[in-house]
Amino acid sequence: DELHMELQRGGKFVMFEYCISIIIMSFKRSSGIYFVRAGERRIGTIAGYSFISLIGGWWGIPWGPIYTIGSLITNLSGGKNITNEVVASLR
User: Fold this and answer.
1) Are 64 and 19 spatial neighbours (Cβ–Cβ below 8 Å)?
2) Which contiguous run of DSSP H or E holds residue 80?
3) What is the pTM of this model?
4) Which of 10, 26, 29, 33 gives 21 a disulfide partner, CB atoms 3.0 to 4.6 angstroms apart?
5) Is pLDDT above 90 for 91?
6) What is the DSSP secondary structure assignment for residue 58, as one 8-state letter?
């Protein structure tokens, strides 16, 4: 019931992205699932995953820069909203 109320208030489940590159190979990965309450921002989490991408993501050509920019855009927009998927799996 408490989760349902939080979701009705605007809470959501999100995942953040990060990119790691090793010479010619680049890997785009997702974080674990985070619950974000309505009005809450996960600044530390966003900064952490974005920092990983900024430091380790650029180096693989050509996908490193592409994946890094995509990860930064996703993270800075609040993460990838997967609320519907999580709620469906809970039912």
Assistant:
1) yes
2) strand 80-81
3) 0.90
4) 26
5) no
6) T
